[in-house]
Amino acid sequence: MTESLATQMVDGQPEAFRVLVVEDDPVTRRLLEKLLQRSGYQVETAGNGRDGLALFEAGSFSIAISDWMMPEMDGLQFCRAVRSHDQQRYSYIILLTAKDSKDDLISGLEAGADDYLVKPIHPAELIARLNTARRILGLERSLRRRNEEIARLSITDSLTQVFNRGYFNQQLPAEISRVRRHGGSLAIAICDIDHFKRVNDRYGHQAGDAVLSDFAHCLRDNVRQGVDWVARYGGEEFALVLPETDLAGALLAVERFRSLVAEICVLSAAGSISITASFGVAALNADTDASVATMDRLVFTADECLYEAKHHGRNRVAGRALQPGHQQPE
């Protein structure tokens, strides 16, 4: 199947360019609509700038074609209003005008128009300008996708594909602040694969990487999607962040994670590998004193509980809520 001239590929699928035509003259408006539809564009029309802006705000348009001289809101006002919006996708604006002085054209471009056409409009010229718009929009969206991918990679652990330590350090204070502002509770768990050094020594580092990856995926795939999140804290240690979860709820959830991890069987060239993990849980709520409800105290308490779980035999969960007066060592 060949792609239409008026479509683009978005996430591997063809998507038609949607065009908004804002023109107060009904004959011109109808001619533009027919011409664009014959060229494969999806078209909506408005008879003045105010109605056009309402359509633009309600929909998602790749291209807007607006007359300059209109009642209610002229083309310059329409351009400025469109550009004042925080758009996820850039929209290309072509201004139609009978004005052809340099000062007028500069005013149109400064108002936010990307291009202009002087009336009367020649159909072939309009299509050529639209082709230019499509090329520019394609470049803009390609750049946006690359930037999004760079941003994603900057907060992702390359081996396990969960969040990295940098994201954890950046995001956990925001989770704590949310509890302080809006109430509720928050729990974290620091977890560690038991005897991981033995895995590397016996099976090799490639097998160790496979164990880390499967362990991380087990956690990530079993948290509440869109609520909880997982980060690689360092080495074989990972952090689970459980918003809106008190200590009792966190201990129940983390015990389930511990049980799921114990069922993991990683296949390697040297044989199958079974693992267990230990978990330290710490929790706070909106009533926790501000001097205690800090990232450092939360992580320190979870680390203490992790040590306690390992000290009592590993493959277990220990936890407690943050308490005033429990001082972190210098």
What does this structure look like?
By secondary structure, the protein is an alpha/beta fold. It has 2 domains: 7-154, Response regulator (Rossmann fold), CATH 3.40.50.2300; 165-321, Alpha-Beta Plaits, CATH 3.30.70. It is built from 10 helices and 14 strands. The strands form 4 sheets. A 5-stranded parallel beta sheet has the order 4-3-5-6-7, with helices on both faces. A 5-stranded mixed beta sheet has the order 9-10-8-13-14, sandwiched between helices. A two-stranded antiparallel sheet has the order 1-2.
Unreliable stretches (pLDDT < 50, length at least 5) are: 9-14, 326-330
Query: Biggest sheet, open or closed, and with what strands and sense?
Result: 5 strands, parallel
Which overall shape is indicated by the principal axes computed on the Cα atoms? elongated
- Strand order of the main beta sheet, please? 4-3-5-6-7
Number of individual domains: 2
Helix content bin: 40-55%
Mean pLDDT: 90
- Cα-to-Cα separation, first versus last residue: 67 Å
Number of helices: 10
How large is the share of residues in beta strands? 15-25%
What CATH calls the topology of the largest domain is Alpha-Beta Plaits
What radius of gyration results from the CA coordinates? 29 Å
What's the total count of β strands? 14
**Name given to the CATH architecture of the largest domain:** 2-Layer Sandwich
Question: What is the CATH class of the largest domain?
Answer: Alpha Beta
Q: Report the CATH superfamily of the largest domain.
A: Reverse transcriptase/Diguanylate cyclase domain
